[in-house]
Structures are given as C-alpha cells and as structure tokens.
Amino acid sequence: GMDALTHAVEAYVSTAATPMTDACAEKAMEYINRYLRRAVANGRDKEAREGMCYAQYLAGMAFNNASLGHVHAMAHQLGGFYDLPHGECNAILLPHVSQYNLISSRRRFGRIARLLGERTEGLSPTDASQKAITAISILSKDVGIPAGLIALGKKYGKEVREEDIPIMTANAQKDACGLTNPRIMTDAAVAAIYKAAL
User: Fold this and answer.
1) Are 192 and 95 in contact (CB under 8 A)?
2) Distance from first CA to last CA of the chain, Å, rounded?
3) What are phi and psi of 124, to 5 degrees?
4) Which of 195, 11, 16 has the alpha carbon at shortest distance from 187?
5) What's the rounded Cα separation, in Å, for the pair 27 and 57?
6) How far is CA 162 from CA 23, 87, 91, 106, 196, in A?
7) What does the alpha-carbon distance between residue 182 and residue 106 come to, in Å, rounded to a whole number?
8) How many C-beta atoms surround the C-beta of residue 59 within 10 A?
9) CA dihedral 109, 113, 53, 68 (to 10 degrees)
C-alpha cells in the first residue's frame, strides 16, 4: 500500500507528469487515504481490499507513464544491499525526499495533502505543502511502518550501516528513476536523506 502511495506521489510531482498521469495519481491517492488503513486493520474487508487494488493499478498507470523519482532510486539500493522490503523502504524515504522536493512543487504537494485528508483551507502554498509530509508520515505510522531504516533492518534481522551510505548514494545517482525527480539531487543531498532516514 505504501509502495502504491509512493508510485502515485512520485508520478504526480515527476517532471514527466501529464494530465492523464495526474488523474490516475490523484485517484490513487484518494483511494489509498480511504482504504489502506481499513485493509491493514481487517484483511477480510473486501471493499477496502478492492479499493486498494484499484489504487495500486491507478498508481501503476501513473508511474508507468510519468516515471518516478529519488525515493525509488534510493530504495532500490536498500533492497540490493540489505534485501529489505521495497515498499517499506519507500515508505520510510518518502517523507524525507518529499521534504527535499517541496520547493519545486508546492502546489502539487498541497493537493497531495488534500487527497490524503488534510485540511489546507486558508493556508499558504508553503504551509499546505508541508501538510503533505505530515499526512504521509501519519499514514506510515498508522499502518505499522518502522520509524527509520535501522529499525526496519532490525525487524528483518539486517544491519543498516551508515558506512554504506557513500556507495548507496553513488548507485542511487545512477538509477534511472532519479531522472524525473522534480528537484536536482546532489550527492550531498542523497547522503543527507539516507542519514536522516536512519
């Protein structure tokens, strides 16, 4: 579910976004907000499970046409180095990368906040966009995503090491997903995000 959210968010703020991908991403985020908590709380809730099926399918259509961003570029390294679950790596990185990307897409992040259930009436574009980070973080916590990469590693019996950040940063910078990130990512920014996500 959080992987689907990452697909939708990254496609929505991608430099290759189009009206078609926007429509798919927006509906996916709306459905994820409506159904993910319910699906996690009760796996026998068929309406919630069906809603999440539509959400992931719509998010897939969005990112297959608009591509992704640096959340995926960075998460791929965590999967490769430590064999950690892709969706949970995305969920942990998504608020951090989104925070970095805010200045490039304030109005889009404000819309993400509304789609994820946050009230943004009367807020400036900057304050409304910040609500998207809040909404993503709350949803992650509600569905049981560990607070950081070290905690995620412990959950699966892996050791996430700070000394691996330079090589993961170099590899993430070569990942094709980063090409459509809305803000240019420097090596220093990628390394800082990995450290912040520990």
Assistant:
1) no
2) 22
3) -70, 160
4) 195
5) 10
6) 39, 21, 19, 31, 11
7) 11
8) 28
9) 20
User: Tell me, what's the pLDDT at 151?
Assistant: 98
Q: What is the pLDDT of residues 82-107, one digit of tens each?
A: 999 999 999 999 999 999 999 999 99
Task: Tell whether domain 2-197 is in CATH 3.40.50.150.
Answer: no
The contacts of residue 29 (CB under 8 Å, 6+ apart) are 5, 8, 9, 12, 55, 112, 115, 116
Amino acid at 13: V
DSSP classification of residue 148: S
Cα–Cα distance, 78 to 81 (Å, whole number): 5
CA distance 78 to 151: 13
Give the rounded percent of residues in the chain with a pLDDT score beyond 70.
100
Q: How crowded is residue 54: how many other Cβ atoms within 10 Å of its Cβ?
A: 15
